[in-house]
UniProtKB/TrEMBL annotation:
Domain of life: Bacteria
Gene3D superfamilies: 1.10.8.60, 3.40.50.2300, Homeodomain-like, P-loop containing nucleotide triphosphate hydrolases
Domain Sigma-54 factor interaction span(s) in chain numbering: 153-382
Species annotation: Mucilaginibacter achroorhodeus
Response regulatory domain ranges (all copies): 3-117
Protein name as it appears in the record: Sigma-54-dependent Fis family transcriptional regulator
Keywords: ATP-binding, Nucleotide-binding, Phosphoprotein, Transcription, Transcription regulation
Pfam families assigned to the protein according to its UniProt record, in alphabetical order: AAA_lid_14 (PF25601), HTH_8 (PF02954), Response_reg (PF00072), Sigma54_activat (PF00158)
Length: 478
């Protein structure tokens, strides 16, 4: 269970946060001032500290310095009021993972905390990998193979080796990079790896999901705004460009941006300056841009949906992310890695996969790619009662892959293994299973047709994006 320490002299804020995070599976401690917080850190290890910027006996800057100096493995998120946002951005450059502003919103808090803990574990694994190998003298031009945990694991397939070669080539440069690939292939993990291997590694890495942005909010999210600059602008907001200044800005699903926002982006990228909405002051930028897309941007250009000049600004270097089904033996290497992570997370001791499961994994299409594999292994680890993952704990769409008709690429031995390995009854006469199977099949088909663009898929399926995410989660695609 992940451990979080909340340091806030507003007792009610600490209590509410503690209850909320406990309900979401975290082990939480609270401290009412900086001194009490440091005492807690002396007694126990924490994955993350949520620290208010203004404390009765110190401030966020001093707390960050102390925590990073004494407990470098512990991540820090600053809680701040709107008047302290500028300082919060400076704290990010000093080593804080992120900041969250009051009033606190549950979804924002949970998302920020989850990403912060994942990043801390990634950095620890990088350090462990570095120290576990014999020391050797390297020049400043040599690139360490820093591979992030979670969705990006060193593979042995030809496709994986080519991917790592390209990461090594482009990381030390300041090139803008386009990462191409299907949904779930680990594009953000590759972007983080490029950042961690660059000279900007000690500067912010800011990720932004362009697919979830409305046309109205996009400009504010990118460029920020001043208090009172428009109706509803109740406070000054720092945009993602400004937050990433000196570091790397990662833009995911960039093909979903409106044409107007693309024009504004082009100006910012060309001039290397940003101006908040409602401000006359221009801020100089030094930001490396990495974008990811599962769309064919060339096709978007031809159809007038994506600006060609912006595409060429971004496309100084491109990396193709191979789908999981093209990575051969990497599938089981990744599965073993996710099993190890799930054991640690769930405090389980599942040691292996049955031969039937291995055969099934190697022949399944993995339309959700690495993300789907990770979720399947986590779920199977939770459901497994012994030491071995068997067919009966796999989701129906995987264990009955051949029956469902999703492009059966299995041998007869594989098919019989699945049939024998699953003790579930034949679902074809069960109306509930039949309805769910038809729904899952429809969702998968539409996602494939739009190359896993979730915004387009939701439109075609006539459901909102949130409903689609929930249904994808139900079939381990999210």
């Amino acid at each position: 269970m992940k451990k979080i320490l909340i340091i806030d002299d507003e007792v009610n804020v600490g209590l509410l946060l503690s209850k909320f995070l406990t309900r979401n599976g975290f082990e939480v401690s609270t401290a009412a001032n900086g001194s009490a917080g440091m005492e807690c850190l002396k007694k126990e290890e924490y994955d993350l500290v949520l620290c208010d910027f203004r404390l009765e006996d110190t401030d966020g800057r001093e707390m960050l310095k102390s925590i990073k100096s004494l407990y470098p493995k512990t991540g820090v998120i600053i809680i701040t009021g709107y008047s302290d946002i500028k300082m919060a951005v400076e704290l990010i450059k000093m080593g804080a993972y992120d900041y969250i502003t009051k009033p606190l919103y549950p979804d924002e808090i949970l998302n920020t905390i989850t990403k912060a803990i994942e990043t801390q574990y990634a950095l620890q694994e990088i350090a462990a990998n570095d120290y576990s190998t014999p020391a050797k003298v390297t020049s400043s031009k040599e690139i360490k193979k820093q591979i992030l945990t979670g969705e990006f694991v060193v593979g042995t397939s030809k496709a994986s080796k080519e991917l790592y070669r390209q990461i090594e080539l482009v990381s030390p440069t300041n090139y803008s990079v386009i990462i191409l690939g299907e949904s779930g292939t680990g594009k953000e993990s590759v972007a983080k790896s490029i950042h961690m291997n660059s000279q900007r590694a000690n500067q912010p890495f800011v990720a932004m999901d362009c697919g979830s942005l409305t046309k109205e909010l996009a400009a504010s999210e990118f460029f920020g705004h001043e208090k009172g600059s428009f109706t509803g602008a109740l406070y000054t907001k720092i945009g993602h460009f400004e937050m990433a200044n000196g570091g790397t800005l990662f833009l995911d699903e960039v093909g979903n941006l409106s044409y107007e926002i693309q024009a504004a982006l082009l100006r910012t990228v060309q001039e290397r300056k940003v101006k908040r909405i409602g401000s006359t002051k221009e801020i100089d930028l030094d930001v490396r841009i990495i974008i990811a897309t599962n769309e064919n941007l060339q096709e978007g250009i031809n159809k007038g949906r994506f600006r060609e000049d912006l595409y060429h600004r971004f496309n100084e270097f491109s990396i193709y992310m191979p789908p999981l089904r093209e990575r051969g033996n990497d599938i089981m290497m990744l599965a073993e890695h996710f099993l190890k992570v799930a054991n640690q997370e769930l405090d389980r001791n599942v040691s292996s996969f049955s031969p039937d499961v291995i055969d099934c994994f190697m022949n399944y299409r993995w339309q959700g790619n690495i993300r789907e594999l990770k979720n399947v292994v986590r779920r199977a680890t939770l459901l497994t009662e012994g030491n071995e993952i068997t067919m009966k704990v796999l989701p129906l769409e995987i264990s009955n892959y051949r029956v469902s008709g999703f492009e059966p690429a299995m041998s007869s031995s594989s098919a019989s293994a699945i049939s024998a390995g699953s003790d579930a009854k034949e679902p074809k006469h069960d109306l509930k299973n039949a309805a769910l199977g038809a729904e899952h099949e429809t969702i998968l088909r539409v996602l494939r047709e739009v190359n896993f663009n979730k915004t387009k898929a939701a439109e075609i399926l006539n459901i909102d994006r949130k409903t689609l995410y929930n249904k994808m989660k139900a079939i381990n695609l999210k």
